């Protein structure tokens, strides 16, 4: 059986930075990801990132992805791609369906002294009449099509949801040559940063707040040819008589995300519901250790935020795993973590971050009250 | 705060939320106009200004403030702002003409001399304009900064050009 000091599951921003820290500290580190390429969502992010210089601000996401991949290689991290973790068992045994160079798959069982789960988040959908019509897709899918595969999903897009994902993907669809007909937001105000909204407004995209989609219309070929929208009341219910029809061939949904929980559930980590973090999340302490000893979490899988916070959480998890194994002294690990925590705290200030900061702190308090000391994986 | 509903700032709203150059400063030469009004964690504009005219400090969620006495209107901050929220306005070109510089990440990249439709913050046509400068060095990392000449009375409203416009 293969033995590893640290297994990192998920090679997005948090998984990569966790693996880099663990590898740098000298831990024998394996990073696995089910995709063809490492980098998670970073290679879809063609825009310049926000944040501070410590977070590569002003650098485009895909460039950060390339930088992290190089750092991971330099840190001696082993990377398996097209490799899916299919089971986590007591004693740190992990089943992996491993992609091989010849395109075949092999089933591997390995034993990891510590595990860092960084599996990210998945998109929420909303239901409406005709929501399964071809041409209705997640905003993330449309973003993958234009930015990774260089294929336009269609010509005329209606975007649902005004969070940063809806605003940024609208912009990127226009950069790819699509026309964004309108952006609808059921809430009475724009959810994402006003600078992102301003960018698409001056490109001529109308934003309709307090309005949502109630039906996708299909044309003769069975795919989307338009949609019916309606104003919503204070309880998000469509107001009869306010229906309007928009012509479009693609409807993209940017209606929030929730943490991907399959593996933390398998590992038996204690979960708690935290709405502002996207739903159920594995609770963790300030070392990002879950209720299960030696199992750490980082990034969106422990609360949907953004790449900067994921990068920093990944670092903390990587440092803590290396500390757990004695590669970093407790004093050094504490000092490294406290520097990162103060940076994380400043990222979570302001009207957008505060709610998440409060929720994260509440979650860590729950941990210290209910878990106290992580238990061995049963 | 209508921008939270509509997605764009009216100039009067912007004036109440950000420190903008006054008319006297506009008469002295090109100057940056920062249209960033929310406390988001972001600060590359601060480091982008080699004249030290932009300040954010700590915490990183502070709004950027500009010292218009130090700003020379070079426009380096335009391409560095990830929110694409900084513009340079020059009201000293004479003959009733002003120029507005803005980031523009769409194809085709405009060329000097191109006629264009100047649009306001909500993307509506304001006036005709002419592209007078396009700056796109490697350091801007694929964010061309386009400058257009327009009638001076629209200098506080014009913020981009209609995409795909062909005269």
Automatic annotation (TrEMBL), chain A:
<dbReference type="InterPro" id="IPR023753">
    <property type="entry name" value="FAD/NAD-binding_dom"/>
</dbReference>
<dbReference type="InterPro" id="IPR051691">
    <property type="entry name" value="Metab_Enz_Cyan_OpOx_G3PDH"/>
</dbReference>
<dbReference type="InterPro" id="IPR036188">
    <property type="entry name" value="FAD/NAD-bd_sf"/>
</dbReference>
<feature type="domain" description="FAD/NAD(P)-binding">
    <location>
        <begin position="4"/>
        <end position="314"/>
    </location>
</feature>
<dbReference type="GO" id="GO:0016491">
    <property type="term" value="F:oxidoreductase activity"/>
</dbReference>
<dbReference type="Pfam" id="PF07992">
    <property type="entry name" value="Pyr_redox_2"/>
</dbReference>
<keyword id="KW-0560">Oxidoreductase</keyword>
<protein>
    <submittedName>
        <fullName>FAD-binding protein</fullName>
    </submittedName>
</protein>
From TrEMBL, chain B:
<keyword id="KW-0408">Iron</keyword>
<dbReference type="Pfam" id="PF00037">
    <property type="entry name" value="Fer4"/>
</dbReference>
<dbReference type="GO" id="GO:0051536">
    <property type="term" value="F:iron-sulfur cluster binding"/>
</dbReference>
<protein>
    <submittedName>
        <fullName>4Fe-4S ferredoxin</fullName>
    </submittedName>
</protein>
<feature type="domain" description="4Fe-4S ferredoxin-type">
    <location>
        <begin position="62"/>
        <end position="91"/>
    </location>
</feature>
<dbReference type="GO" id="GO:0046872">
    <property type="term" value="F:metal ion binding"/>
</dbReference>
<dbReference type="InterPro" id="IPR017896">
    <property type="entry name" value="4Fe4S_Fe-S-bd"/>
</dbReference>
<dbReference type="InterPro" id="IPR017900">
    <property type="entry name" value="4Fe4S_Fe_S_CS"/>
</dbReference>
<keyword id="KW-0411">Iron-sulfur</keyword>
<keyword id="KW-0479">Metal-binding</keyword>
């Amino acid at each position: 059986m293969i033995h590893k000091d640290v297994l990192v599951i998920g090679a997005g921003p948090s998984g990569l930075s966790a693996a880099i820290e663990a590898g740098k500290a000298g831990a024998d580190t394996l990073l696995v990801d089910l995709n063809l390429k490492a980098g998670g969502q970073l290679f879809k992010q063609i825009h310049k990132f926000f944040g501070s210089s410590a977070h590569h601000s002003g650098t485009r996401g895909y460039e950060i992805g390339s930088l992290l991949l190089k750092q991971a290689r330099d840190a001696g991290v082993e990377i398996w791609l097209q490799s899916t973790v299919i089971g986590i068992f007591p004693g740190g045994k992990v089943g992996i369906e491993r992609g091989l160079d010849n395109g075949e798959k092999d089933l591997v069982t390995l034993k990891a002294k510590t595990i860092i789960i960084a599996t990210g988040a998945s998109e929420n959908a909303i239901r409406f009449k005709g929501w399964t019509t071809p041409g209705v897709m997640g905003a993330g899918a449309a973003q993958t099509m234009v930015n990774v595969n260089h294929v336009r999903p269609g010509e005329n897009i209606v975007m649902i949801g005004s969070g940063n994902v809806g605003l940024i993907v609208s912009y990127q669809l226009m950069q790819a040559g699509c026309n964004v007909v309108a952006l609808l937001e059921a809430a009475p105000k724009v959810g994402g940063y006003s600078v992102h909204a301003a960018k698409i407004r001056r490109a001529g995209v109308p934003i309709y707040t307090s309005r949502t989609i109630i039906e996708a219309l299909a044309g003769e070929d069975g795919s989307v040819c338009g949609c019916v929208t309606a104003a919503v009341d204070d309880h998000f219910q469509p107001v009869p008589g306010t229906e309007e029809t928009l012509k479009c061939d693609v409807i993209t949904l940017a209606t929030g995300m929730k943490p991907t929980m399959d593996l933390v559930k398998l590992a038996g980590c204690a979960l708690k519901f935290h709405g502002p973090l996207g739903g159920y999340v594995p609770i963790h302490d300030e070392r990002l250790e879950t209720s299960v000893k030696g199992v750490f979490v980082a990034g969106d899988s422990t609360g949907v935020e953004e790449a900067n916070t994921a990068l920093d959480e990944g670092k903390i998890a990587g440092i803590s795993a290396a500390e757990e194994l004695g590669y970093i002294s407790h004093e050094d690990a504490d000092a490294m973590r406290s520097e990162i925590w103060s940076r994380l705290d400043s990222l979570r200030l302001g009207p957008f971050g505060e709610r998440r900061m409060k929720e994260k702190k509440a979650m860590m308090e729950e941990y210290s009250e209910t878990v106290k000391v992580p238990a061995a994986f049963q | 705060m209508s921008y939270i509903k509509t997605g764009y700032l009216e100039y009067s709203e912007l004036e109440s939320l950000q420190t903008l150059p006054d008319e006297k400063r506009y008469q002295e030469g090109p100057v940056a106009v920062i249209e960033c009004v929310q406390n988001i964690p972001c600060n590359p504009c601060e480091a982008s200004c080699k004249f030290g005219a932009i300040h954010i400090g700590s915490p990183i969620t502070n709004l950027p403030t500009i010292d218009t006495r130090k700003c020379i209107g070079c426009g380096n901050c335009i391409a560095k702002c990830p929110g694409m929220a900084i513009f340079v306005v020059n009201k000293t070109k004479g003959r009733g003409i002003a120029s507005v510089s803005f980031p523009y990440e769409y194809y085709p990249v405009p060329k000097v001399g191109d006629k264009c439709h100047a649009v306001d913050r909500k993307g509506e046509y304001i006036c005709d304009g002419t592209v007078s400068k396009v700056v796109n060095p490697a350091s801007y990392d694929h964010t061309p900064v386009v400058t257009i000449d327009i009638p001076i009375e629209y200098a506080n409203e014009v913020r981009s050009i209609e995409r795909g416009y062909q005269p």
